[in-house]
Amino acid sequence: MSTSPYPPPMPPGLLGAADAYAPCLPLPLMPVRVTCGFPSPAEDFFGTQDLLDLNTRCVDNPVATFFVEADTGTSMIEFGIFPGDTLVVDRSKTPRHGDIAMVLWEGGFTVKQLRRVRGRFELHSGNPENAPIMVPEDVELDVWGVVTWSLRKQLRR
Predict the structure, then answer these.
(1) Residues whose CB falls within 8 Å of the CB of residue 105, separated by 6 or more in sequence, listed in order
(2) Catalytic choice (112, 125, 150, 153)
(3) How does pLDDT run across 133-157, given as a tens digit for each residue?
(4) Nearby residues of 111 by Cβ (< 8 Å), 6 or more positions away
(5) Which of 9, 38, 76, 138 is buried most, with the most CB atoms less than 10 Å from its CB?
(6) With helix as H, strand as E and coil as C, how does the chain read?
(7) What is the pLDDT of residues 26-57, one digit of tens each?
(8) In Å, what is the CA distance from 46 to each residue of 28, 49, 50?
(9) For residues 29 and 112, which has the higher predicted lDDT (pLDDT)?
(10) Which of 146, 152, 14, 127 is nearest to 76 (CA)?
């Protein structure tokens, strides 16, 4: 954590915190995985247990989770994060090697894959043309949270 006397800046595109008391909104969930080819004959059979609530699916810890919108950069496309995606970020998760993390770096927020290489942290984009950011050993990395989900609008995007 940073030892700055100033309050931390708010992330750009912050959509807000998850509601700890969000009402359940279970919606129908098909009991089969959808193919992108021919339809399954099992699609006509829904059961009463076939429900999905995005709050319970995407948010493990509501008081430590917030939503942020990815900006127009394209460096994370290879990791499945596109411009305009809504990212679910959990501040209670301990970041591990290979996790996608939201970090405060050089005065701004960025989302990168966190790697630990030979005892040092590196921040990797999904684009191999972008060199990794090597975090110096004497610099403490301020990780704001781990990206647990990314949500992408499909309709008229």
Answers:
(1) 123, 133, 141, 142
(2) 112
(3) 999 888 888 999 999 999 998 887 6
(4) 70, 76, 81, 87, 100, 101, 102, 103, 147
(5) 76
(6) CCCCCCCCCCCCCEEEECCCCCCCCCEECCCCCCCCCCCCHHHHCCCCCCEECHHHHHCCCHHHEEEEECCCCCCCHHHCCCCCCEEEEECCCCCCCCCEEEEEECCEEEEEEEEEECCEEEEECCCCCCCCEECCCCCCCEEEEEEEEEECCCCCC
(7) 666 656 565 666 655 655 555 666 777 888 88
(8) 8, 8, 6
(9) 112
(10) 127
Which among 2, 4, 40, 75 is annotated as catalytic?
A: 75
112 catalytic residue (yes or no): yes
Question: Which residue type, as a one-letter code, is found at position 123?
Answer: L
The single residue listed with the structure tokens 């080819």 is 37
